[in-house]
What does this fold into?
Amino acid sequence: MTNDTMSDTTTGTWVAVGPAGAVGTIHRAADGFRVELYGRRGPGGTYPTLQSAKGAVHKAMGPLADRPEFHQH
It folds into this structure.
């Protein structure tokens, strides 16, 4: 279940899950949303919006990858 319309983006952590399992996390930070990627998928970073952070995770998965599901924790 993909939840792109988060009602609470002020705090939280979102886990990105692809077909092979978890691929990374997004953490709410004071200056935006911090992306942490698992394995050798590329560097993380901080993004101004949750949507841009989700896009960065998807892009790091490669050009043919389906968009991962994002689960808020």
About this structure: The radius of gyration is 11 Å. The CA atoms of residues 4 and 51 lie 8 Å apart.
